[in-house]
Amino acid sequence: MLSVSFGRYLEEAIMNLDTTNPVTREHLPVVVRELQKQVMSFLSAHPSHSLARQFKMLLMAADSLVKAA
């Protein structure tokens, strides 16, 4: 249950970032790219983990966020 909550937390955090805030916009690319790197590393090591599908969706949302910033 904790892992599902953690996956949901990350998903909600990405979706609710205020990209109009100048400080957020300044740090967003570096922080989100690091998140992407860590999630991809996790998925490589644990491809059949119960959160794999949710993390793949998170990667797509993060990629979209970085491209829009």
From TrEMBL:
Q: Name one Pfam family in it.
A: EDC4_C
Span of domain Enhancer of mRNA-decapping protein 4 C-terminal: 8-58
Specify the domain of life of the species encoding this protein. Eukaryota
Q: Under which name does UniProt file this protein?
A: Enhancer of mRNA-decapping protein 4 C-terminal domain-containing protein
Organism annotation: Diatraea saccharalis
